[in-house]
Amino acid sequence: MKIGILGYGNLGRGIECAIRQNEDMELAAVFTRRNPENVKILTEGVPVYPAEELENMQGKLDVLILCGGSATDLPEQTPSYAKYFNVIDSFDTHARIPEHFDNVDAVAKESGHVALISCGWDPGMFSLNRLYANAVLPNGKDYTFWGKGVSQGHSDAIRRVEGVKDGKQYTIPVEDALAAVRNGENPELTTRQKHIRECFVVAEEGADQAKIEETIKNMPNYFADYDTTVHFISEEELKEQHSGIPHGGFVFRTGVTGWEEEHNHIIEYSLKLDSNPEFTSSVIVAYARAVYRLSQEGASGCKTVFDIAPAYLSPKSGAELRKHLL
Amino acid sequence: MKIGILGYGNLGRGIECAIRQNEDMELAAVFTRRNPENVKILTEGVPVYPAEELENMQGKLDVLILCGGSATDLPEQTPSYAKYFNVIDSFDTHARIPEHFDNVDAVAKESGHVALISCGWDPGMFSLNRLYANAVLPNGKDYTFWGKGVSQGHSDAIRRVEGVKDGKQYTIPVEDALAAVRNGENPELTTRQKHIRECFVVAEEGADQAKIEETIKNMPNYFADYDTTVHFISEEELKEQHSGIPHGGFVFRTGVTGWEEEHNHIIEYSLKLDSNPEFTSSVIVAYARAVYRLSQEGASGCKTVFDIAPAYLSPKSGAELRKHLL
Lengths: 326, 326
Prior knowledge:
The structure is a homodimer.
Chain A: E1 2-6, H1 10-20, E2 26-32, E3 48-50, E4 63-66, H2 73-82, E5 87-88, H3 97-111, E6 114-116, H4 125-136, E7 140-146, E8 149-150, H5 152-159, E9 164-173, H6 175-182, H7 191-194, E10 195-203, H8 209-217, E11 227-232, H9 235-241, E12 247-257, E13 263-273, H10 276-296, E14 301-303, H11 318-324
Parallel strand pairs in A: 1-2, 1-4, 2-3, 4-5, 5-6, 6-14, 10-11
Antiparallel strand pairs in A: 7-12, 8-9, 9-10, 12-13
Helix pairs in contact in A: 1-10, 2-3
């Protein structure tokens, strides 16, 4: 299976690493909108091309993995490239998924390619767990918690505050809320009761720290609805202690069964990830195998993780899977 | 969707309860090998027929759910009835799944029906989680823990001991082992280090309790390889405190990503179930929907949970799923 990567940031690099763990895959080329000479990749002997070169790659890639952002890149890139390739993206703006799906589906159906959108862990593995658990326990309640992990959006928001040189924000589930759900209490939880936000901020020299803290804590949408703590630290400490990109979270469904709804059940799925982009990449690469196989079978159109039978993700045969994993 | 149930024990009754939670399903009839007059079901107006009556039901059931045991019933029943119906079973003798699959597949392909085997939570939801996690983290380690829950097989083994009137056995995961896995320590665990076995025994009057305890603790396969505790209690206490059939467990995969395998990830799936048979039934009923749909699409042959795209399990449309659960 020959894989192409468009975009070589954290996600692109993660895809490159994940391909190396899968013997049936090969990284064919990396494509970039930057000057290819400035893009040093890890795999020896693999070319880096300008994005425009993709025009000449038809028939040379089995799957093209799009590693752009959801805000502006993917809404444009995924439909464009589905014209020429089987593609996968990690489009994660939940509210705009239906629109994105329709745009991609029209192109992929016409061109006869398979396009998988919104792949990763949320949307992705978390969505799968919500779906399975909802189907199994129709009479129940869903809870999703995120963290502990770095939120890129919230870290960016901190960095836009006047007087802030750099910063990182951790989203952390509230332990008592987790415990109440796990304990089968079916709590009604407000935004504030579910997550806390912890900020590590490097202030500019001479900046008014009290004012920075107040500005962050009162920022609408991002922080105002949460219990937020702000720690001022040095640039060195930020680099040493907070340069990772960990993340994770929990998906619960609690539900009842029985003639009188007398029995309670709790389904819990959780992830604890040292590297958010590398785990996302690992999910995408497993699904690249599925996309390739579906395409080989003659399928076309836009898909999500909901539409793909699990066996397609594994390099093992059906017989091997039944013998060893069932 | 018209569902038939063959066998009305704990599982059959669980199926009946689960059907009631799914508006697109209807219990058409219960079939039994006992005298139908002695089988009182919960749903009003639904007939109970002798099993032989199934011969006359072709075309009247969309899916027949087989609620027999894995030891002798299902190896015979599932291939037999796949000749006439779409069927689902919960065959759970892991080692014999490949053979059972082949037997069922041959019949189902020839008759043009869809047969789903080994549905439930292990095999079933646990298997799915093993497969997804293995595909996503190819470089890693699997752990499955069961419990806290009642093991029917071990309870039966206790009851066969001389001097034992009744008994229940709980399989319990060792907390330290769970913690070590969750902590990313990738421990190598022996059988004894993973689970403990707790037995509640009602002794016959005048029986030698010390001898019973010794016999249980040294029983090969069942108890000898475990730390086992034996509590002698009264018949009343057994009935009051230990008449439920709870179960559950944990599936972990720990794995590494990154160019130098420098990042660790932990995927954990767990179930905490008040009623093992009712949860198993809920899984089976969700898959009955999938079997029916696949059959409508013209599919045939034997399937497992690995072969079925998640969207087939839900009564919601693809668009609804993408909007609300992705």
